[in-house]
Amino acid sequence: MPDLYKRDAGSTMERLVAFWKRQARDRILITTLIPNPHWDSYLRAHGHPARYRVAAPGYTLTYFPEGVAGFRTECLSVEDPSRVMAMIEAQQRICADLDDDSMPIGYPSLHFGENVFAGFTGVPIEFYGNGLYTWSGTQSPPLATWDALEDVLTSPLQEPWRSRFENMARYAVEKAQGRFGLRTFITIDTLNLAVE
């Protein structure tokens, strides 16, 4: 694993495998994140002081500027996949020498938001964000009744979101080039789907 953005990926993976196999009951594994100066520069260039918080433990920091309303709202994964991957790669680079228990992982589909599930079923979705990240929302539930659930689960994913989501995933795989892994959905997305 010499090409990964991780100084000692081999022993990190051994610790994680032991944890997943429940063979590390005497250990506490940790993930450390470093504030990314790239985002500070981005916000300053747009006239905003930077404030950040951990948005999704293990793979990203989200920066919330003062005056969020002044930022454009866009679906970055659709509009500018190269910017999404540049953000992920910059974070991986500054975390490469961390001696913690995390593996380098990017989340390129974060910008679609959990509500992209509704888009997959044909319901219109809208985007909102802070200029660095975007989320999605819908005011139309994808199901009118529980009886319609079976049709949603068995029907093909609706365009244009199916193609946009797949294209972003393919682009991300190409750009990651084996240096970091990719996460498509957050683990709790099945719960988000139930909420939708």
Description:
This protein is α+β, with helices and mostly antiparallel strands and 196 residues long. It contains eight helices and six strands. The chain has helices spanning 9-20, 37-45, 76-79, 81-95, 116-120, 149-154, 161-176, 189-195, and strands spanning 52-56, 60-63, 105-106, 126-129, 134-137, 181-182. The longest helix is centred in the C-terminal third of the chain and has 16 residues, at 161-176. The termini are far apart.
Structure described in brief:
The protein has 196 residues and is of the alpha+beta class. The chain contains eight helices and six strands.
Order of helices and strands: HHEEHHEHEEHHEH
Number of strands: 6
- How much of the polypeptide forms β-strand, as a percent range? 5-15%
Uncertain stretches: 54-63
- In DSSP terms, counting alpha (H) and pi (I) runs of 4 or more, how many helices? 8
Main-sheet strand order equals 1-2
Radius of gyration: 18 Å
Q: Could you report the average pLDDT, rounded to the nearest whole number?
A: 77
| Sheet with most strands | 2 strands, antiparallel
- Which range best describes the helical content: under 10%, 10-25%, 25-40%, 40-55%, 55-70% or over 70%? 25-40%
Structural class: alpha+beta
Distance between the termini: 39 Å
What best-fitting shape do the alpha-carbon axes yield? globular
